[in-house]
């Protein structure tokens, strides 16, 4: 089963998406399962994990409701206010749905780069571990030092780094990103998504611009801790679904037509997927 581990849906009239404005013209419309399904079929993708795009529990509930209608959506990475006094009860409630596989705070948008180190998060993180939920880290290079500290505090928490931590490919900023990612790869409970990189490159990007970053992640994390994600429809800002998938496939395939990445990595990064498929 080939799984796209990072895509989004949104419906503008829900009113959840404060960041989504008419200035982002390619994204400023509804993107729903019916729009994605033909793209998946064309690329040979069997299933997806849909990731939150709004800081509301209502959106998480909406995404979970879609899994009841579309069996190829095998997981949801939702959102809970991890600092709230109600965080533990919210996690317990949402986790009753078997297709909730993780949670993602929108760290890249928070004013405090060290937010993840606040003691107020500890009860929620403990609840995530108890419910076998994965923490999606939506971080940028400026957060990586704090993320390393976060990982030492929560050794039992499984973490997926989204979008390779958004290296500044357009500025050829390989360091210190590369060294910091190597340090994070030392933690065995950390995975990394090959997603969201085309939007970090120059407008006239070529596959050769991306490959040093993809290769570094694969070399450090290994084939068993790296996942494919499309970041659709955000990918449309710099590419099409098909174009990014072709770049990924050309990088992923090695001699003899075998895939570089392990086919079951999604189920190890998000083990509640197994429950959702029963």
Low-confidence stretches: none
**Total number of helical segments?**
10
Mean pLDDT, to the nearest integer, reads 95
> What's the gyration radius in Å?
17 Å
Largest sheet: 8 strands, parallel
Helix content: 25-40%
> Please, what is the oligomeric state?
single chain
Order of helices and strands: EHEHEHEHEHEHEHEHHH
- Strand coverage percent: 5-15%
Principal-axis shape:
globular
First and last CA, distance: 15 Å
Biggest sheet strand order reads 1-2-3-4-5-6-7-8
Kindly state the number of beta strands: 8
- Derived from helix and strand composition plus strand pairing, the structural class reads alpha/beta
Provide a short characterization of the protein structure.
With 278 residues, this protein is an alpha/beta fold. The chain has 10 helices and 8 strands.
Task: Write structural notes for this entry.
With 278 residues, the chain is of the alpha/beta class. The two termini are 15 Å apart. It contains 10 helices and 8 strands. 34% of the residues lie in helices and 13% in strands.
